[in-house]
Design brief:
- The complex is a heterodimer of chains A (about 325) and B (about 120).
- With about 325 residues, chain A is of the alpha/beta class.
- Chain A folds into two domains: about 110 residues; about 200 residues, Alpha-Beta Barrel (TIM Barrel), CATH 3.20.20.
- In chain A, strand 3, helix 8 and strand 4 form a beta-alpha-beta unit.
- In chain A, helix 1 packs across helix 10, helix 9 crosses helix 10 and helix 10 runs parallel beside helix 11.
- The longest helix of chain A is centred in the middle third of the chain and has 29 residues.
- Chain A is globular, with a radius of gyration of 20 Å.
- The two termini of chain A are about 25 Å apart.
- By secondary structure, chain B is an all-alpha fold.
- In chain B, about 50% of the residues lie in helices and about 0% in strands.
- Chain B is globular.
- The chains are: A alpha/beta (about 325), B mainly alpha (about 120).
- At the A-B interface, helix 3, helix 5, helix 7, strand 4 and helix 11 of A face helix 1, helix 2, helix 5 and helix 6 of B.
């Protein structure tokens, strides 16, 4: 791409982000800075010294090396992780509840062997509570039939189960020595999923005030699968990051992770400009650290198992430089 | 960050504080457990360690600070620290230096009989 083509993508990305999120577009100075980053021919790009941020590194206990605690140790010692996360490959609190004793023991062992703050993570995953996987009538089947009231009732019933499971797992992990809990991809099943997460966080913070809580979103926009659910008087459906962070901090979260999914038909520059535009208003109202998600296919990072370092480093730098975020 | 798989080192080099190579884990701990925003967390940790904020991401400076305060360091081949604080021992010092309770330290003290169970 030529510099003029990159600039055109940056402008297009911020314009569509601004239109969708009803946010101001990036300024000319911000677009100029992004152009400097993306038009550079260097293989790598990085923030200025002194501007380094905290990397929360969800999913550090992956199974590359065959043993999760070894993997945590590897991230701590060799990959510069500022925080660590233990998790199970079946990344859902509903699933973890059934193996909590095993997972809690893993947390205890991991805590004995690591120094960096170590949280436990999984997804709220409200959809798992619907039939055939769970006990609740499937709202995704009810809605196309026009049975809207039943679909809404089903989601409310599922929320109760999800909250119970998240609090149950958090209790076990806290007793095992966890520093915090991560609720990852919150809102993946819509506003009911998000409400379950907020409710669980509020309960957990009430029981364990020192427990860290990271709330990471599934997407930039909360889908209104129910449509009328509220948290402390605020309607959840249709929330963008600047409103999501407000309810997150009211619930008791200590870190908020906005997520903006990439459009794989567009350039990295286009996606970064769009992500920055959508997240920027969130930075202005946040009272807790904001760690935008920049994993595969999120925040501008390309959809690839091994995303090129030239692209990822530019995403990493761009989000820090433009958003002045607290972490990634 | 979201899933760092396949790109962990890239982010670490492009924007990260450096984890235990520096004071990234300490600043991260204040964010995770106290909800401190970045500037506040860096200032807090720097004051507790008695260093400048710029030193927090400097592995040379922090290597000595971590040694002096017993905050744990990364063994690298012949540079091992078998007689210094590591893992749980280091977290005892981190809790004391940062002035915040660390859950696993509290649990360890209870299980080891170092303090009465709550």
């Amino acid at each position: 791409m030529t510099p003029s083509e990159i600039r055109a993508d940056l402008v297009a990305g911020t314009e569509i982000g601004a239109r969708r999120a009803k946010a101001p577009p990036l300024t000319e100075a911000e677009l100029d800075h992004l152009l400097d980053i993306f038009a550079s021919e260097s293989k790598f790009s990085a923030v200025d010294m002194g501007d380094e941020i905290v990397l929360s590194f969800d999913g550090t206990g992956n199974l590359d090396s065959g043993a999760r605690v070894d993997e945590l140790y590897s991230y701590q010692s060799h990959r510069g992780a500022d925080m660590l996360e233990l998790f199970s490959i079946d990344y859902s609190y509903k699933a973890i509840k059934t193996i909590l004793s095993y997972e809690a023991q893993a947390m205890k062992v991991a805590q004995l062997n690591t120094i960096a703050p170590l949280q436990y993570g999984a997804m709220p995953d409200l959809g798992r509570y619907s039939m055939p996987d769970g006990p609740i009538p499937n709202w995704s089947e009810l809605m196309p039939l026009g049975r809207i009231a039943e679909a809404r009732d089903a989601q409310v019933a599922a929320i109760d189960h999800a909250v119970d499971d998240m609090v149950f797992v958090a209790d076990g992990m806290w007793e095992a020595g966890a520093d915090g809990m991560d609720f990852d991809t919150a809102g993946a099943a819509g506003d009911g999923d998000f409400l379950a997460t907020l409710t669980a966080i509020e309960k957990i913070k009430g029981r364990h005030p020192d427990c860290g809580i990271e709330l990471g979103m599934a997407a930039e926009y909360v889908l209104g699968m129910h449509g009328e659910l509220t948290y402390k008087g605020r309607r959840l459906a249709g929330m963008w990051p600047k409103d999501q962070v407000v309810v997150a901090q009211e619930a008791g979260a200590t870190i908020f992770g906005p997520a903006v999914n990439v459009n794989t038909t567009k350039s990295v520059a286009w996606n970064v400009a769009r992500a920055c535009t959508i997240i920027k208003p969130c930075m202005e109202v946040a009272e807790i650290p904001v760690h935008p998600n920049v994993g595969m296919g999120v925040g501008g990072v390309p959809m690839s198992p091994y995303p090129p370092a030239d692209a990822v480093s530019r995403v990493s730098r761009a989000l820090v430089d433009i958003l002045k975020c607290d972490g990634l | 960050m979201g899933d760092p798989l396949g790109m962990a080192c890239t982010h670490a080099l492009a924007s990260g504080m450096g984890g235990m190579r520096t004071a990234g884990d300490l600043v991260g701990r204040m964010q995770m457990t106290r909800g401190m925003r970045l500037k506040q967390a860096k200032t807090y940790v720097a004051e507790k360690l008695g260093v400048g904020v710029a030193d927090l991401a400097d592995p040379i400076a922090m290597h000595d600070v971590r040694r002096d305060l017993g905050l744990g360091r990364i063994p690298v081949q012949e540079l091992t620290y078998s007689t210094h604080a590591g893992a749980m021992e280091a977290k005892f010092h981190i809790a004391e230096v940062l002035g915040v309770p660390i859950n696993s330290v509290t649990r360890f003290q209870e299980c080891a009989g170092l303090r009465a169970r709550a």
